[in-house]
Design goal:
Distance between the termini: 51 Å
Number of strands: 0
Radius of gyration: 21 Å
Shape: elongated
Structural class: mainly alpha
Largest sheet: none
Length: about 70
Amino acid sequence: DDIKEDEDASQVDLDEAAQEELSEKRRREREARAQALTLEIIGDLPYAEVKPPENVLFVCKLNPVTEG
């Protein structure tokens, strides 16, 4: 009986961890869509779902004064 209860408890922990991970993933996706829409509105992107060509490498140099 104790083994069964331990297995059930570990399964609940896994379910909670998986649920938390899924929730975080959804939050990041919503945030990315909102940022893309903002860039579309201000004219930096032609449309929010734009993707770079497969053969393009993006390289940027960050301003050392800015914080991330």
